[in-house]
Write a structure and sequence with these properties.
The complex is a heterotrimer of chains A (469), B (318) and C (209). Chain A is an all-alpha fold and 469 residues long. Chain A has helices at 2-6, 17-45, 58-89, 97-119, 133-156, 165-190, 194-229, 236-249, 265-277, 279-292, 298-302, 304-326, 329-335, 339-369, 376-409, 414-452. Chain A is 76% helix and 0% strand. Chain C is mainly alpha-helical and 209 residues long. Chain C is 49% helix and 4% strand. Classes of the chains: A mainly alpha (469), B alpha+beta (318), C mainly alpha (209).
Chain lengths: 469, 318, 209
Amino acid sequence: MLMKYLFAKNDEIPAGSATIFFGFSSIFWFVVGTGLGSFNAAKLAFPDWVTGTELFAFGHMRQVHVLAVIIGWISMAFGMTMMYMTPALGNTKLWSEKLGLWTVFLWNIGLSLGLLLLWMGITSGREYNDLIWPIDLVVIFGVLLPLGINVWMTIAHRKTQGIYITNWFFGACIFMVMIVFLVGQSPELFNLTGLTEAYLTFWFAHNVLGLWITPVAAAIAYYTIPKLTGNPLYSHRIGHLHFWAIIVFYSTPASHHLMSAPLPEWLKSFASVEGVLILIPAVAFVANILLTMKGKWTMFVENVETKFSITGVLLAIPLNMQGGFQQTRAINWYVHGTGWIVAHAHLALLGMSSFLEAAAVYFGLQQMLRRKLYSLTLANLHYWFFIVGFCIYWISMTIAGLIQGAGKIYEVPYIDVVVAEHPYMIARWVGGTMVFTGNVVWLFNMWMTAREGTLVPEGRYAHELAYER
Amino acid sequence: MAFRRHKFGSAGIGLMFGFSMCITLFGPSNDFRSGVSTWVGLDKQLSLGRVIGFSYEDPTVSGDGKPITVILNKDPKTGVAIDPPIRAYVYKPGVKFSPGVNHPELLGPGVEDLSMRDGKISSASMSSGAVFTVSKGVFNDEEVDYIENASATRGWTPDKTLRTAGDANSRYVGKGKTIYISEGCWWCHTLLPEQTQDWQMFGQPPFLGDFNGEMPTAFGSDRKAPDILHVASRNSSREWMTMHFFNPRLVQPNSIMPRFDYLWGKQDANGNSIDFAKWRADYSDYLHGKRIYAPEVPEPARDSEVRALIDWILTSLK
Amino acid sequence: MAFKMDQPLYSLSDEAEQKEILALWEKEKHGGLSEGNNRIPFPITFLLGLIILTAFMITMPIWGQRPTADIYVDYVALMDSAEVQSMATPEEKMNYIAKTAYAKADARRQGALERHPLAWDDLLNIAPQIKEIQSGKGKYPLDNYNVLGDRIALANFEGNFTEGGYRERKQPWWDLGYTIDVFYVSYFLITMVIVIKRLPHFSRKPNLG
């Protein structure tokens, strides 16, 4: 069906096609990514589990897991939300469904190719930027640029005078992440070396999170929560505070990832103060969304999309408290490079961000398919597997990290730390597997929704109808 | 309602974002440029070559087109004994030079001047290959290390140098680090003892000048295993490394490191094919108490990947 | 875009513009969504202030530091004194040295000494190195060196530039980074005040139906 539409005339493609393909691709990559995560965790707990071939070695799988989740699941879910939120917020239709479909097509091809190469060990050797530069160029010009053109043109052709905050975030973040990707490639393209390379690697890693994953996830919540609850967004003013604080403070603390490397100290001082100031947009975001919920808190329990969304917002609180303070000189020496950081990274991507996107994907797919969710029970099952699995993971890795930190400070022989961490490695595997199981359920639920969900009548929203199963 | 005036808003985004980019990108670049290469930095870049990881010369990231580090105990041209032995970095014809040779400004003030003046690095040519060494000199009353193009200053040719050293004194360091990258060792091991806490256990943290010309640095961020920047000074046994790579549980029962037996390839050092299935069966018997000793680990072949990896660890990480 | 400056804390926009904005907010629905004009709650403003203050205070290099060679200078001076020479056991000697040096030290030094006790054998090993650095060999002062058990090594911090043109090997209390931060915070706050005060005053709520 995708093939048919790729060469169809733009007007003949039904509205929402790009959203639907993006949506299912993102869920598919989420299943793949968490499946790989579960597999990797098993290898850390039981190193002799699958051996003898490099294809199933931990070192070949780890980066595939990370990038499948970041570029496959999270970024594609962003693409999906942009495809339906941007036009909806401008009271117009998507600038080009065809371009959207080409984006999702090239995205899947490019990502599969890149992950395959990584799996074979063909890598640039730079964390989060592991993809070799030809693939990165595909990401920039085959994925981000068309996505950006679609979003920018849709905003330009809007039928409203104002631009809602979500669209401000979408437009700005695509622009910024493209610049970040381009600059992030420079060590490979121009053979920059030494600490410049190390710094640019983490400059890229930080800004991809800070100018893409976190703010776009927040932007999604600015749509889903008012939409689901029917309340107006609490405050336009706080929106300003959030948006500009993201651009000013989130774009600067890159070097706080290298606090123990011989970078110039002034750069670290600068970055770690800015790093704490990340709490400003975080406070603004959480306050704005939670105050929007006023009078509608029952929906947190009763409505599954709200449940996902608000869980994500609530997880933003510990996320930013950790993120703001763990990078300071006072705390970083204890937790740097330990499982604590792994727990924090999963809190950001699997916790805060993924929950917000899951809500938007649930909502958007029902909306665009014009079909009511197949089964509430399965959706709740997904939610509980997801949140419980995530909590097991997060808590066990945080404890493991503290053990590791203590081992580092008190100069304990490393092997004793490995032994002490073993139970938490098993817990991590259990948690990760639960998340994976939940996602398989989700994929099934969504597939059945597309095939058998109750049709939503014109002019109604899916979440207003009663569930039939 | 500035927020809704999209031109104003867009300009604001551009301005603020550009501001941050200037400070975070241009600001530190001056500091990085002023870093003076140390001996460690020069040794690293000469032994690793232009780039580790994906590149034109090594698209499959398997360690092709990398220089070879040799330990010389006599002069390849004159045959005069060298005591103590020195390291030379052999670039066969066609092997790309390390960044500092092509762009001496990367070496930092002083090192750059001496490498150009005394080291004659600008006369090295890729098509005929070159041999480099690291020498000591004095610049502005300070002792600095610089790169010497031994092909120009002493007439050492790549072929002759390799023959003089022989395989026993050749270290495939560049290939070794490539394996380190492509096998993902750096997902668990770090190459960066931390400034404040790691000194006693993992050794002295590196200085700014220890990295000039290295790409990628692959510090690693998620430490699930010991830092290995100075591992060779803690444990320099090739035999231990060999057993540990084949199956870490042979020497460290509680290790969670994966087995890297597949780095041995198909044949061992004597050209016999390695029977992995039998080894595994024997090892399983050993674990279940049916054998007293673990089976022997096959000796790695000369051109095996694991040999290069161990070469890198024992030569570079001190 | 007319600025009205007579009541800056109320609104920077004139009456006509405020009305226009409110009318637009009431009329226009973004895909069914609308926005309120509620004030930034006071607790949030308070939190912002607290965050900014904390940001500067917590990044100062106070905790988690290796002992520098500087803090043991008094130990080295005391170990050759007649009292210490006359004592019999290492424990006794170390006890006396630690106590005497602690009493002489200022509060900051006292904290460092409490966190980093030293054994007599280690002191014997590092004392000659400290003396050598004190005697003026090498360009770095004592507090640029870290004590690692029984030896001393130059720290690898790339700190502020000294008058000699080289970098201090220690984390600074103030440097260029903090200065840029002050600028960043100020420009952000000024911009935000202007942007937010350009909006209609928060007491004027759009009727969002």
